[in-house]
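So, can you check what follows?
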Amino acid sequence: MEGKNRFSIILLVIIAALAIALASMAVFVLVGGGASTKQVEKVVQITRPADSQVTVKKIFDKKLMNLKMAEDKKLSVIQISAEMVYFNKVTGIKDIGIKLTSYDGEMKELIGTYFQNLTLEEVKKPETKEKAKKDLIKQINDLLNANEKGKNDIVYTINFDEWFYQ
């Protein structure tokens, strides 16, 4: 009888300790001891590569492109100057420069088609330039990685030196 009593007491002590530990963890998380979104953003933030890791390539210099016609059937154009910043070395690709040269026409076509799908009203919005950068970086990286085994970012960013529309 005494053995069962000791076993019950030990079991109750273990359960009580686990309950206290669980309650203290719940209080810690609810009070704000967990990772905040600001901390997570800092971890995810990508640092700019060193100048020796990237190269700049001019894509367009003062190029006029037609924009999508608005409802008033008025012709609108955008004039851009664009350059691409790309990584010098990418895993699985011998010579990035040769690859970019061989895809030069397709990249320019991709960019032209992108702007043909924008209206003058869309181009006037300040956030459109940043959206165009992100979309074009993704599309160009997808194009350049289409026949590669790995999917690595080749293009780091695209800079629009000029962005004039009418």
